[in-house]
Write a structure and sequence with these properties.
single chain, mainly alpha, three-stranded antiparallel β-sheet, two-stranded antiparallel sheet, elongated
């Protein structure tokens, strides 16, 4: 029965062609701006991280002392591929790798000094980015904007 109502709702909704175009253009502009900001953050005094390396450093920074298998799952990268990237990041002193105290078979990863610097810079840039966006809106509009953005992943996963 639910499928029937879902079907009716989807097919009775009128979406203007111009709104489809506006949304696509707005999302593309937003993604481009965000990607540019992330790329600028990738640049570090000892070199430049590629996109995958940057993603890993930020995942480890967010989750701290994380298992290799969790990183693999979290960024959708096979463990075999991840291991070679982690090796490079450990060599460059962005990450440190160690065995878990609870189970020596489990390998964990943490931020090293260079990784902490990049992660801290990235967090600061994300906060600046959010403040720039939210500063154009009053409290009620901020809540609405955030609510709409939070719904986007749900809409895309239907």
């Amino acid at each position: 029965m639910f499928k029937y109502f879902e079907y009716r709702i989807l097919h009775t909704m009128k979406i203007k062609e111009e709104n489809i175009t506006r949304l696509i253009n707005a999302m593309f502009a937003l993604m481009t701006t965000m990607k540019k900001g992330a790329e600028e953050c990738c640049i570090h005094s000892s070199g430049k991280l590629n996109e995958k390396e940057f993603l890993i450093v930020n995942f480890v920074g967010k989750h701290q002392n994380v298992k290799m298998s969790d990183i693999s799952e979290g960024i959708s990268t096979p463990l075999s591929t991840l291991t070679s990237i982690i090796d490079k990041l450990v060599d460059k002193k962005y990450l440190s790798r160690y065995h878990s105290d609870e189970d020596r078979r489990v390998v964990k990863v943490a931020l090293a000094k260079n990784g902490e610097e990049i992660y801290t810079t990235f967090i600061s840039q994300k906060e600046d980015f959010a403040m720039k966006i939210l500063s154009d809106y009053d409290d009620k509009s901020q809540e609405e904007l955030i609510s709409y953005i939070e719904k986007i992943p749900h809409s895309l996963n239907k």
